Amino acid sequence: MNFNQNHQMIFAKNIWNKITVFFLFFFFALAGNAQILEPVKWSSKIEKKGNNAVLIFDGTIEKDWHMYSQFTPEGGPLALEIVFKNQKGNYELIGKAKEGKTRTAFNDVFGVNETFFEGKAHIEQEIKIINPNLKTVDVDFDFQVCKDVCINSNKKFSIAVPSTFKMEEVPVIAPAQLDETKRTGLAIDTVKKEAEVTKDQKVKAETEKEINEEIPAPAPARSLWSIFFIAFLSGFAALLTPCVFPMIPMTVSFFTKQSKSRAKGIRNAIIYGFSIIAIYVILGLIVTKIFGADALNALSTDVWFNLIFFVILIIFATSFLGAFEIMLPNSWANKADQQADKGGIIGILFMALALAIVSFSCTGPIVGTLLVEAASNGGIAPIVGMLGFSSALALPFMLFALFPGWLNSLPKSGGWLNTVKVVLGFLELALAFKFLSNADLVLQLHFLEREVFIAIWIAIFAALTLYLFGKITLPHDSPLQHISVGRLYLGLLTLVFTMYLIPGLWGAPLKLISAFPPPPQYSESPFGVGGSGNSGLSTDVKGLPEGAELGPHGIMVFHDYEDGLAYAKEIHKPIMLDFTGYACVNCRKMENNVWSEPTILPILKNDVVLISLYVDDKRELPKEEQFVTAAGDKIITVGDKWTDFMISKYKTNTQPLYVITDLEGNNLHTSKPTISYVSAAEYLKWLKEGIANFK
User: Fold this and answer.
1) What pLDDT, on the 0 to 100 scale, is given for residue 527?
2) Cytochrome C biogenesis protein transmembrane domain spans which residues (predicted)?
3) 8 Å CB contact between 18 and 6
């Protein structure tokens, strides 16, 4: 089959701009199940800025869809690419295109923090016009939009340049010169020109106000409640460290004994608790105000930041394990203690500050990690995180002041506190390598690939298991004659987790920790250490047919339709077309979570011929294979070819898209010709139906 021929009906990517909405609905009613989606509607304009001009692009994004920013890092989804077609000799770019509000969130499929627009996309590019005869500025946008499916789209802009934009600024004419200039008409032109500028400025100001009002504030990747809950648990963990726990009975006793009445002691303890909360919330507020949500988002994806934080966490983990103590200067604590002696509310506030300073060696790494993780969510997440952490830290002081009898049931300080600190040290050590992995992924150095990362985690949690079982002792541990039941259970839990990690070396997906290790494709071998990935495959790996390779989970896959079709005819098996993309998040999710199912994987390996066609493949087609569609779109790259095939044949432009066909290219499904991002159960039912129809 030659796909360079014009098909009966070719839908171009920008079809919504070429026919009316009524005709579309009418056609889709006849066509059936599929449709061309265009979740982003664009508008453009040009405004004057001094001697320069500003190109403004506004996109309205449909609900639940998001479009990736030009600043989304490599290794993740497809970033926005802006191409200025007629720049040479006509105009110069002033800096890089600026974007409106975006949101940044971690993508556990690609292992990077992706940046994207929601609701509105606003982009500005300042230019200096150097050709006075320039008529238009031609710009192309290549971008990806995702919801349950992903769409790779292209938008072409041709913005007319008003003649007034190419004139030099005319000086303001003084009133005394008006009579003289009337004879030349210069004053009239100047007044008109200045009126136009004033009007333009007013329109621009109103437009900017509307944009600021319409673009929604970035929502956090996690809900604020989940951030609060995680931070609260972290605060509880910090509470059980030797830096904080012994302070509870000492501080509560101080309030109850030194106060003139029990009521006053309770009041002081409550003020003390709220002072702790205030100190940490103010810390979160300062971090947010100094850096701002956007800067923190950018910082969390920065290579140097991740490397620096990796080193910091290694140092803190080493301290937790007992190599040395990290403490803030004693003078800080002494000054806080001196202020606390003054009494009153101010004195109580400084007592809380003294606690924060003295306990820094235990709380510092936890607070730092929380701030970094919350900051990547943007908005008020750092403040919410600090509120949750400090609430857990302050709660015991207030409760034991209200019920001082409980102090008698409080466990005595001892070696178990150091055990808690050591466990936190192991966890900090494991987390440190996540930051190192982020830097490695962004730089694509392949120093810390998936197998190496998992091996490091296995070593860390195996060592933690041995420590909990008493087989390893560290510098500050008390003599251990037996282990407690709680320590035994925790040791068993870490042992199970360590055993769970081991199959990851052989290609197991490790879905419980999918957000931490690098993605499966970022590995020395896609099939794990020593694995061929060929389990259950009927074809010998060494004798793969021409054009085939081993894909996800060892499935034999073709990336060219003609090669796959020829092989399917040779072995007489149905074809499963997989329209996918290198930067398609939901495509990877389907491969990782659905294709890996034990009921589905054997079918994909043995009962169909898989042809995966990448619509974002940027390799250029040979000149003789390039063509122009009936709609006027140029088919230049391999991705263009498969996009045109998908649109013209199946009347849709979404990925992932799965189709099962016979050897003549006819669809084997009647009720549901194509399928996309669905559950494993629905996917399995669809697979079996298509194969049964072929037989």
Assistant:
1) 54
2) 225-437
3) no
